[in-house]
Amino acid sequence: MRNMRGDAMRGLAVFISDIRNCKSREAELRRINKELTNIRQRFRADKTLDGYQKKKYVCKLLFIFLLGHDIDFGYMEAVNLLSSNKYTEKQIGYLFISVIMNSSTEMKQLIIQNIRNDIQSRNPIFINLALQCVANIGDKEMATAFTHEIPRLLTSGDTIDPVKQSAALCLLRLHRTSPESLQLNTEWTARIIHLLNDQHLGVATAAVSLIDALVKRSPDEYKGCVNLAVSRLSRIVTSSYTDFQDYTYYFVPAPWLCVKLLRLLQNYPPPDDPSVRSRLNECLDTILNKAQEPLKSKKVQHSNARNAVLFEAINLIIHMDCESSLLVRACNQLGQFLQNRETNLRYLALESMCLLATSEFSHEAVKKHQETVINALKSERDVSVRQRAVDLLYAMCDRSNAEDIVQEMLTYLETADYTIREEMVLKIAILSEKYAVDYKWYLDIMLKLIRIAGDFVSEEVWYRVIQVVVNRSDVQSYAAKIAFEALQAPACHENMIKVAGYILGEYGNLIALDLRSTPMIQFDLLHSKYHLCSPTTRSLLLSTYMKFINLFPEIKQHIQDVLRHDSNYRSSDVEIQQRAIEYLRLSEICSPTVLATVLEIMPPYPEKQSPLLVRLKQKKPLMEAENNSEPSVTTTTTHTEDVPKFAETAIHLNQQQQQQQQQNGLLVSFDTIESNTHFGESTSYSLPSTITTTETTIQSSKKFLFKNSDIIFENDLLQIGIKGEATKHILRVEFYYGNKTNFNLTNISTNITLLDELESELRLNLEPIKPTIDPKAQIKQSGTIECLQEFRDLPKINFSFL
Amino acid sequence: MIGGVFIYNHKGEVLISRVYRDDIGRNAVDAFRVNVIHARQQSRFPVVNIARTSFFYTKRSNIWLCAVAKQNINAAMVFEFLNKMIDIMQSYFGKISEENVKNNFVLIYELLDEILDFGYPQNSDTGVLKTFITQQGVRPITREEQTNVTSAVTGQIGWRREGIKYRRNELFLDVIESVNLLMSQQGQVLSTHVAGRVVMKSYLSGMPECKFGINDKITVENRTKNQLDSTNSTNNNNPTNSTTTTTTTKTAIAIDDCQFHQCVKLSKFESEHSISFIPPDGEFELMRYRTTKDISLPFRVIPLVREIGRTKMEVKVVVKSNFKPTLIGQKIEIRIPTPPNTCDVQLLCMKGKAKHKSSENAIVWKMKRMGGMKESQLSAEIELLPNDKKKWNRPPISMNFEVPFAPSGFKVRYLKVFEHKLNYSDSETIKWVRYIGKSGLYETRC
């Protein structure tokens, strides 16, 4: 602000001090109103004002605007100021339009014209003012208006360096606000790239930012910048800090330019040209070397600048991921930082190490620091650093050190912050499964995990435990044993009860011979926890009891008593009630052989991607990028919904109350009929299937307990099949009549009769059928049967033909 | 149950803070300052609820008075209390200003202790308060005075102590009315009402009983009926009396609602429609009333606004006085709003002084006095800065004045004083009656 002393605006100062002295808001408003009228008087069309006055009043308007009042005039005067030849006036004009940009188009055209004049002027100060303004308020319109002017400024030989610098930044800004309206000719590409070689470091720094943005838009067009960037980098790195007078920051030569160049290089793969490549490696080597040198200053700025360059270099090394020596050196360097006193440095070191751990070259090197990282986990005061340490441990884990790391993480879990516990639980579960040599060890870990941090164990974790147990027959008895032992603890977490309940239900027989865990003891132990559990767990336990009836017929009576108990049989929870009723009936009706079939041991689950990884990714979207290098993780074929499905099949019998679409069999369908029409007893599961034409075998209606389609009658002439699908109380049926003979069956008629009460209990609606069936052919009759009430008798079909 | 009372200066500094209940925390003082006094947007509501605490406030000349309550209390009661408090403070030390509040803070705390007890308002009669809260400092009170004070505070007639004696028994009655009007451009009355108060200043000895008569429609009708009955029964007819009744019958007014000072015996008013009371000593407000019918509007404003192009506007305003030529209106001020994009105003007026006040965006035309049935005119040329953004919404022209009659037609018919013990008769007391009509919100659209 030169020339300012000559024409200090006294009126403005007085006005501002007046406003500041106002005692109340009303007084302020009055003063402003007065001033506005005054300014309006001055700005009247017929009056002529000199530049100084205009500037003063525009300033006042600006001040009033900044106080939060609306300004609806004075734009014209401000735009007039733009065309002034005095720096101060021009500056105020630019300030005004940058702060109060009027959206009216005619004004905008005028402003753009003025800016264009300034950009084309010879005075670099004016050009800079204009560029600054464009950078501040630049929008689509301006981007199109100046799409040629600014690159020309940037690339022409006779513009001075500060203008170039501004032009580069202005262009960057326009590119950010409206990339689509900024059309850059390809002829400028080479010139813009060559700015990297500019004598003036400031221009180069500004240009790197611009090129970085342009590279992201069209990487191929700007490929040439790699060589230039490498050479520029090597020139900076190899020179002494005394070479750059203005651009040395606390003994570090041009740190910002270095960082930006390194970042620019991360947009491309490692250079193909061996000479360039070796030069780049040299640079990185030098940077790593410099980090070993003693500090030249005790000031924090010095170390900050040095470390910034170093970290960016390490990022580049990780990005290239091809020089094992560099990677190892970087790793060692980071290892040193792990013990640094600066918390930020430790954080960054851990973060970079996480990336290093995923590279095959440096994985081993990272593992050397396991001890330090574990120490960091234990002693670190900053929670974010601890979180990074956990991430790193997870990343560096492999088969050799899994046992130690999992053990350490488990120990830490007990004292960990609540915010990271769930994530840690997932990580422990994944690691212990992934690197488990001995699945007994895995089970130990998992049960311990549930014991320590039960609240943070999500559904997926314990589903997974069960999947593993079911799929591995060698650990099943061990699993039953330790689950039983875990259950003996006085206070059990609910997740533990779920796991134990499931495992004992499946494999309780494997430990039943032991006197310490006879069937009765197992049952009593489980049942002692029953009343403390939530309804979902209770229903799971009911299924377990049912399985016990199959496994240990000797305690059947006992279990039936439990099922019959009011709290289950008449539970207010529909799910529990339904299970209790159905299981009880099942145990009463079915023979042991049928029971054995129904309650068979679960078949192994199909091996899929562990849902835990999916879950972990959901929890931490950040992880995704890191995990991308592991092919096994990136697949997204499985949905998390798989898991509840597993659980359902595991429970095996009707969860269907909630999920009607998953009905497995007629049994279920009829069941739902019962429960929906609210009848307590559920006896007649049978479908009407008596046939009265010729002497026939009456098929056991009970087979519909398990199937929803079957042949209900068959002889040499005829086959009758039925298929049903129930939604709530309506059964949609299809009868299939098959002609087994070699001649036509004619005069066919079917008639379903409902005897006595059945009439009021069922409602039939069947479509008529064709009177003939061709030889070896089948006809279909479909219809619906609506259940109005509970029924006991069976409807009869009369089928006649000639 | 008022939890506390705070007084702030215009900057939001606390001058007085008195907390009566424990449910009001220390931060309540700051909460009000932050959310109301220093609020970005000026608060337009008299009651603000901050963190489940209600703040009731009024502002008097840069001083904020705020009552705080945690419970759900009667807001009207709180505002009545706040206004009463302002009255009391004014009668103790005059104008309410930061300076005065600071100088009298001991007195204010003393008053606050007396007029609120655990948040419940107590006796707030200035006359009574002045008997035991004095500004003279501590002086020994005689036993007699003490009993007087006690009986005054606890007795049946709490507003008047016994044994008052004056050499001259004198009383003053002021009928003060404020006229509110909204008139359309064409001179059609859109809404109007008068809010009036009867203020009495009594200097009477003993315990006088007063009877007050007004020209209220109901009372007047009652009376004429009685009178007719009596004239029918007895031929002893008083001619003056009958003429007064006939004249008053014509001008009887309909009072929409009214309220009385606590000294008025409401039971008598209910049954006989007569206002009888034992007045407190000194000044008090005897009654308040409101009327909406048959209001004689003292002034009429006729505006004429012409917009000439986008940069010029012409305004012509005619004021007509509409009352008896013998009377004179005073302190007349007409405020004509100007558009916000005004840059210059040329004024020409026949009478008084007119000025464009740019700080308030208005032309202010003042006349010291104006006789009845007269007319005056102002013309203004307003130059505008072209502005296509918003249209000016033309706020109404407002007016202030003072006239020496009651625009509602309210008349005091009699005020009789009876004092049986001391034996001075009604005719010996000197009575003064004065009528003042003021402007309330007196607006004409333009």
Automatic annotation (TrEMBL), chain A:
Residue ranges annotated for the Clathrin adaptor alpha/beta/gamma-adaptin appendage Ig-like subdomain domain, each copy included: 702-800
Keywords: Coated pit, Cytoplasmic vesicle, Endocytosis, Golgi apparatus, Membrane, Protein transport, Transport
A GO cellular component annotation in the UniProt record: AP-2 adaptor complex
InterPro entries: Adaptor_Complx_Large_Subunit, AP1_complex_gsu, ARM-like, ARM-type_fold, Clathrin/coatomer_adapt-like_N, Clathrin_a/b/g-adaptin_app_Ig, Clathrin_app_Ig-like_sf
Subcellular location: Cytoplasmic vesicle membrane; Golgi apparatus; Membrane, Coated pit
Pfam families linked to this entry: Adaptin_N, Alpha_adaptinC2
Highest taxon, organism lineage: Eukaryota
Similarity annotation: Belongs to the adaptor complexes large subunit family.
Native source organism of the sequence: Rotaria sordida
Topology term for the membrane: Peripheral membrane protein
First-listed, main subcellular location of the protein, grouped into a coarse class: membrane
GO terms (BP aspect): endocytosis; intracellular protein transport
Protein name: AP-1 complex subunit gamma
Gene3D superfamilies named among the record's database cross-references: 2.60.40.1230, Leucine-rich Repeat Variant
UniProt keyword tRNA-binding present: no
SMART domains assigned to the protein according to its UniProt record, in alphabetical order: Alpha_adaptinC2
Automatic annotation (TrEMBL), chain B:
Keywords per UniProt: Cell membrane, Coated pit, Endocytosis, Lipid-binding, Membrane, Protein transport, Transport
Segments forming domain MHD: 168-445
Sequence ranges of Low complexity compositional bias: 230-246
Pfam families recorded: Adap_comp_sub (PF00928), Clat_adaptor_s (PF01217)
GO cellular component, one term: clathrin-coated pit
Major location category of this protein: membrane
Sequence segments annotated as region (Disordered): 225-246
Source species, domain of life: Eukaryota
Cited SUPFAM superfamilies: Second domain of Mu2 adaptin subunit (ap50) of ap2 adaptor (SSF49447), SNARE-like (SSF64356)
Residues reported to bind a 1,2-diacyl-sn-glycero-3-phospho-(1D-myo-inositol-3,4,5-trisphosphate): K353, K355, K357, K366, K368
Membrane topology: Peripheral membrane protein
Subcellular location(s) per record: Cell membrane; Membrane, Coated pit
One of the protein's GO biological processes: intracellular protein transport
InterPro entries reported in the protein's UniProt record: Adaptor_comp_med_subunit, AP2_Mu_C_sf, AP2_Mu_N, AP_mu_sigma_su, Clathrin_mu, Clathrin_mu_CS, Longin-like_dom_sf, MHD
GO molecular function per UniProt: lipid binding
Family of this protein: Belongs to the adaptor complexes medium subunit family.
Full protein name: MHD domain-containing protein
Species for this entry: Rotaria sordida
